[in-house]
Write a structure and sequence with these properties.
Layout: E1 2-6, E2 15-19, E3 29-39, H1 41-48, E4 59-60, E5 65-73, E6 83-86, E7 96-100, E8 105-106, H2 113-133, E9 141-144, H3 150-161, E10 165-170, H4 173-182, E11 186-189, H5 194-201, E12 208-213, H6 219-224, E13 226-234, H7 247-253, E14 256-259, H8 269-284, E15 292-297, H9 301-309, E16 316-320
Parallel strand pairs: 9-10, 9-12, 10-11, 12-13, 13-14, 15-16
Antiparallel strand pairs: 1-2, 1-4, 3-5, 3-7, 3-16, 5-6, 6-8
Helix pairs in contact: 2-3
Length: 321
């Protein structure tokens, strides 16, 4: 099979297409021929050496994609030829991927490979943020960082679906327009005094109910943008590590800080299927629209990584084998 690999850490130029043996299919795994693959910043971090990688080079990144079952090892309710997607199985940047049965998500006929590969990882993330980390209630006022990114655009739509007023934060006018098109009530730029913009946006003038922060280095400012008793949800470090938060600050302001990680939520096959099927239903009824920033052939993976790292992507980047 052909796979997008790297043998050393570095920039996009370390990526190469290589001919590798077809993967072994362990017990209770399916061999999936990939039709679409989701590209995420986690893949960039692995290529740079910032995330743990097991085994020896050549390494294959990628954890998200969709395709057709080509072979099976074990009993189950799967059949060769079935359409499936997954959000958390390794070595996805290849023509063939061995995926554990319990991580396969059946695709309804009206959900394309491209939608599934672009939606699941970031959609499941946005979903647990508004359901579990902070269950949004109608009328709440919400701050969403990186509002024109893959998670951000989905977060806006979900927060609006649940009845919130949304202030988005972005880095450019083009991204501002994208966040507004996704449904944000207002959008501020990081170059502005956005903590003050958040207070002005709030109906009380005192701050917002919840801030979803995927930037990390902005966490203290996110806390400052909240009303007394507000809630910050920290789920990423795209802009660097946050400064330590003094627990006395939280005590004095009655504010709360919650961390979030998708892998603590996808704790069983039943949980994975229930959450994915809710996402698909939101796509089906038009409440959730996936924005594809660009699709690249898998053989042009280096260009796809450079595009994603350039921070110009608005929406999801896909790789097509």
């Amino acid at each position: 099979m052909q796979a997008l690999c790297f043998r050393e850490f570095g920039g996009p130029g370390v990526l190469r297409m290589e001919e590798l043996p077809d993967p072994l299919v362990p017990k209770d795994h399916a061999l999936v021929r990939m039709k679409a693959i989701g590209l995420n910043f986690a893949d960039v971090y692995r290529r740079k050496g910032n995330y743990h990688l097991a085994g020896d080079p050549p390494w294959i990144a990628g954890y998200e994609g969709a395709g057709i079952v080509e072979a099976l090892n074990g009993n189950g309710d799967l059949k060769i030829g079935d359409r499936f997607a997954f959000a958390d199985a390794p070595f996805a940047n290849a023509e063939l991927v061995a995926v554990p049965f319990d991580k396969l998500i059946p695709l309804p006929d009206d959900i394309s490979f491209e939608i599934a590969a672009g939606l699941l990882l970031q959609g499941l993330t946005a979903q647990y943020l508004v359901r579990d980390s902070h269950a949004i209630k109608p009328g709440e006022e919400v701050l969403i960082h990186a509002a024109a990114g893959g998670v951000g655009l989905l977060l806006i739509q979900m927060a609006k679906k649940l009845g919130a007023r949304v202030l988005g934060l972005v880095s450019s006018e083009a991204k501002r327009q994208a966040a507004l098109e996704a449904g944000a009530d207002e959008v501020a730029l990081y170059s502005q005094e956005w903590v003050e913009a958040a207070r002005r946006f709030s109906s009380s003038g005192q701050g917002l109910d919840v801030a979803y922060d995927s930037v990390g280095s902005t966490l203290k400012q996110s806390l400052d943008s909240l009303r007394t008793g507000g809630h910050a949800v920290f789920f990423g470090m795209a802009g660097g590590n946050p400064e330590p938060v003094d627990p006395r600050y939280l005590m004095d302001t009655s504010k709360t800080l919650t961390g979030g990680d998708l892998w603590n939520v996808l704790s069983s096959r039943e949980e994975r299927l229930q959450r994915a099927n809710e996402l698909f239903s939101w796509v089906r009824d038009g409440a959730l629209k996936l924005r594809i920033a660009a699709s690249f052939p898998l053989s042009e993976g280096a260009a796809a990584h450079a595009f994603l790292e350039g921070r110009g992507a608005i929406g999801k980047v896909l790789l097509i084998p």
